[in-house]
Amino acid sequence: MSKEMLNALDALEAEKGVSKEIVIEALEAALVSAYKRHYGQAQNVVVEFEQKKGNIHVYAVKEVTEEVMDSQLEVSLKEALLINPAYEIGDTIRFEVTPKDFGRIAAQTAKQVILQRVREAERDIIYNEFSAYEKDIMQGIVERQDHRYIYVNLGKIEAVLSKQDQMPNEFYQPHDRIKVYVARVEKSSKGPQVFVSRSHPDLLRRLFEQEVPEVYDGIVEIISIAREAGDRSKIAVRSTDDNIDPVGTCVGPKGQRVQAIVNELKGENMDIVEWNEDPAIYIANALNPAQVVNVIFDPENSKACTVVVPDYQLSLAIGKRGQNARLAAKLTGFKIDIKSESDMEAFYQQAEQAEQVEEVVEADVNGAAEVIAPDMTADDYENIEFNETETVEETD
C-alpha cells in the first residue's frame, strides 16, 4: 500500500501540478480525524507519513507533569525519566499508538484526500486559465438554456450568459458558435464560474482588435464606445500616426472590416467617428451622420452644451427615439441639447426682446422716481387726480 500511495502522489504532482508536500499535510490531518473517529480516542495525536518508504505512524502526544490527572494527555515525570533522564516538567513525549489495522483506514482516507486534492487542483487550474481570459474575447458553442442563463461551452468549462448580457435581436440555438466577452471569473463552492457577455461595450473593442491589425498594434486607438447592443453603436477612434486615417482604417476596403463585425453582431449598426481634443469638433463628429452648424457650451456647466443643426437635419441629429443624440452624449460624456437653426434664431430674438423690455421698464421706473419722489410727501400722493390721456398735436 505504501508504494502505491507514493506512486499516486508522484503522479498527482507530475500530472496535476499538485505539490506532494501539500497532499501529505492534508493527508496527515485527515488521518488524525480518522483515527479519533474509528477508535473513539479524544487524546492529542499526530500522524506522520514517511515520504521515503510511505509508512504511516500514529503518535499520542503527552505532557510531562508532576501528577497525572488525565492519562491520555499526561505522563508523570517519574515515567518520563525512565524513558530519558533529560525530560523535565512541561516537555512533551510522543508514544506510538499505530493500530495494526490502521493501514486499511489510511488507504481509504488517502484515496479520499487525493481525489479531493485532484478536484481542487483541476478547479484551480481552470480558474487560473480562464482568469487570464478575463476582459478578453473567446469563442464558444451554445449548449443549452434555462429561465436564467444560456450555457456556452468554452472547452474546459461551461460559461453562463445571463439575460442582461444577451443581445435582444439574437436567438440562440444549441450548437451555435458565438464569440463572447469574458466579463468575470469567480471561485465558488462548486468550482470556478465564468460569466460571459454579448452586450458588453468592450466586446466591440476586442472584435476591432481581431479585425483591424492597426487597432491591435495600438496605431489606431479606440477612445470611447457607446453601445445599445443589437441596434446601434458609436466608436470614437484616433490615430497615433498622422499618415493613417483612423476611421478609414477601421472601416476597411469597401467596408470589409467593419462589415465582419456587423455580421458577428447580427446586423448591429456601427458609427465610427474620429476623436478630437477640441470638444466642439468631437461632439460634432459624434452626431454623425447629421451636420452641425455650431456647438455652444453652457458657461454654468462645463459638461453641457447646445448643438445647432440645420432645420432639415434636426430629426437626423436626434435620431429614432432620440438614439443618435443619446449615443453621442454617452460617447462624449457631454449633456447635449439639440436645436434647429430657426429655433435658435427665435430663441435669440425672444432673448433680445426681453432684454429691451427690461431696459425700457427700468428707464420708466427710474424716470418716474426722479420726477415724483424728490418733492412729494405721502399726503401729496393721496391728492393726485388722474386724468385721461389726451393726444396733443403740434401746431406751427
Task: Report on this structure.
- The protein is 41% helix and 25% strand.
- By secondary structure, the chain is α/β, with parallel strands linked by helices.
- The chain has four domains: 124 residues, NusA, N-terminal domain (N Utilization Substance Protein A, Chain:P, domain 4, 2-Layer Sandwich), CATH 3.30.1480; 62 residues, Nucleic acid-binding proteins (OB fold (Dihydrolipoamide Acetyltransferase, E2P)); 76 residues, K homology (KH) domain (GMP Synthetase, Chain A, domain 3), CATH 3.30.300; 82 residues, K homology (KH) domain (GMP Synthetase, Chain A, domain 3), CATH 3.30.300.
- The strands form four sheets. Strands 5-6-7-9-8 form a five-stranded mixed barrel. Strands 1, 2, 3 and 4 form a four-stranded mixed β-sheet that branches.
- Helix 1 runs parallel beside helix 4, helix 5 packs across helix 8 and helix 9 packs antiparallel against helix 11.
- The longest helix has 32 residues.
- The radius of gyration is 41 Å and the shape is elongated.
- It starts with a helix and ends in a 14-residue tail after the last helix.
The strands making up the biggest β-sheet line up spatially as 5-6-7-9-8
Structural class: alpha/beta
Q: What is the percent of helical residues?
A: 40-55%
Instruction: Write down the CATH topology of the largest domain.
Output: N Utilization Substance Protein A, Chain:P, domain 4
